[in-house]
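Sequence in, structure out.
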Amino acid sequence: MAGSGASSPRKRSDARRNEANLLSAAAASFVDAGVDVPVRDIAARAGVGVGTIYRHFPTRADLLVAVYRHQVEACAEAGPTLLDQKTSPLAALADWIDLFIDFLVTKHGLAGAMQSDAAAFGTLHAYFLDRLVPVCAQLLGAAASAGEIVPDVDAYGFMRAIGNLCIGAESDPNYDARRMVGLMMAGLRPQ
């Protein structure tokens, strides 16, 4: 009995790690080749068989939703970690924005693929806002308190502006969304 209890958490931990690797591979595949990338390509990138993907995610919609949630959680968890690790709140905010941009480029493709199920997409959008707006507000507040940016930047409006600057980045190789966001960030600095 003690032996089975010890191996059970390990399997769950391994399964979670495998699923996270699979979701990261799927997200990278979506960025590189779009959301219609063949499942076999995702499996190859993740180093698993196609059956493993279908065992975890029976439909493409299940995979899309899981990737979306996985990326939201990664962005949400990164904010406080970056604040602890970086030398300044502005550096943490800049690194978080880079992660957020990566997510947005993937999100635009996911959003298009999920438009057929407006209710599910609406729920995911609410989840996105609930998880990420407070993190962004925390980062903006820390940078403002340190005098690195102007005070009273609304997190939702800021995230929306970044999102608007990222529209089309996944389909236009001549458009540099990061540069545009960098210019917007420069405007946050106190005069």
